[in-house]
Design goal:
368 residues, alpha+beta, Beta-Lactamase, 6-stranded mixed sheet, 4-stranded mixed sheet, 17 helices, GAF, GAF-like_dom_sf, GAF domain-containing protein
């Protein structure tokens, strides 16, 4: 069976719509939630294992197709690293934020072909209204994974996009063929030196840290040990994890301390939090969006969005952040609990549903 025969066109089904809404997205969105600056994109391009594929893929696509199309190469997180196309299609892509540096994952811009490849690891074609965002309705896209044949790791995504009438089954087959060609280049060792360089650089990266907020003992784990968190510091990190665009000192002060909050107090507290945990918290605004930092909070939200009942049960079996005083966090905790109940009911096995009924959260929901 050919790759084309097993490729799937994903409809905009109810589960995808719920995932997008759970991320706080609206179908009226006209741009991705984040776009990296030029310096970050240059650094990502330099380190990417698929960098040597850009020109061969672009050249091959232009020889095989005379249509007006846009070629995108993203990283394994959906961030657009390279974009090639005719001037007119480039201009149209600008209007929806389909630019180098844009985060094209589902949580940033809604369901699309790139995000479906990230979810499934398989080629995906999306046509018009199958996209979540209405602004994408005039587009059709075909995307395929770029896989390292030695490790099986996803290195990135190849996407070809254009007007609805431009991306047909012929183009879909061509995109899959180009992705397979890329795998063969990797298998032949063309990119071996690039992978070695990337491994050397990764060995010098900032040590990874993990934030744990949901098991009753808030803490930050890292290579230099574990740091326990006070209630206030746990709340601060939960707020930072919940907003990728960050918070001003005034906003954080109001959430953490109410009307009596002062920006100066927050600045001091965040400074001490950085010193005690080693977390890379940026200032102005205060934000925590770093690939070297993981958290059970983000793992839970990914499990909820994916309908993963087992991981929901593993991560959320007691009321989260029970002493939180922030209105934003109180509402967020309530949403986690209600979504967890829905996911287990809709997607869980009988055993998983039984285990959920035994949790403090479920018993409290039943009592109320």
């Amino acid at each position: 069976m050919s790759v084309t025969e097993v490729s799937t066109a994903y409809p905009m089904d109810e589960a995808a719509r719920r995932r997008c809404l759970a991320h706080g997205l609206s179908p009226e969105l006209e741009a991705p939630s984040t776009v990296a600056d030029a310096r970050e994109i240059e650094d990502r391009q330099r380190r990417s294992a698929i960098a040597p594929l850009v020109e061969p893929l672009c050249s091959t696509l232009s020889r095989r197709s005379s249509r007006e199309q846009l070629m995108i190469l993203s990283g394994p997180d959906g961030r657009v690293l390279w974009r090639r196309g005719a001037p007119r299609i480039i201009d149209e892509a600008e209007s929806i934020g389909f630019v180098e540096g844009a985060d094209w994952s589902e949580s940033s811009v809604g369901t699309n072909a790139i995000s479906q490849v990230l979810r499934s690891g398989r080629p995906a074609r999306m046509v018009g209204a199958q996209h979540f965002a209405w602004a994408h309705g005039r587009w059709s896209c075909m995307a395929a994974p770029l896989i390292d044949p030695l490790s099986g790791v996803l290195l990135g995504v190849l996407d070809v996009s254009g007007r609805r009438e431009e991306i047909d089954s012929e183009v879909a087959s061509m995109v899959e063929t180009l992705a397979q060609m890329s795998t063969e280049l990797l298998r032949a060792g063309v990119l071996g030196a690039v992978r070695d360089r990337e491994c050397d650089e990764q060995a010098q990266e900032v040590p990874r840290r993990r934030i744990i907020l949901l098991d009753g003992i808030p803490r930050v784990e890292g290579p230099d040990g574990t740091r326990l968190l006070s209630r206030r510091r746990a709340e601060t990190l939960a707020l930072l994890l919940g907003r990728s665009r960050g918070w001003t000192a005034g906003e954080l002060a109001a959430e953490l301390y109410g009307d009596a909050g002062r920006p100066g107090t927050v600045r001091t507290e965040v400074h001490r939090l950085r010193q005690s945990t080693g977390l890379p918290i940026t200032s102005d605004p205060y934000a925590l969006d770093d690939p070297h930092v993981s958290s059970d909070v983000r793992d839970l939200e990914e499990a909820l969005a994916a309908g993963d009942a087992e991981n929901v049960l593993r991560l959320l079996n007691s009321p989260p952040l029970p002493q939180a005083q922030s209105e934003v966090l109180t509402a967020r905790c309530a949403w986690w609990e209600s979504e967890a109940a829905r996911v287990v009911a809709d997607y869980g096995s009988l055993d998983q549903q039984r285990r959920w009924r035994g949790t403090d959260i479920a018993m409290r929901q039943t009592a109320s």
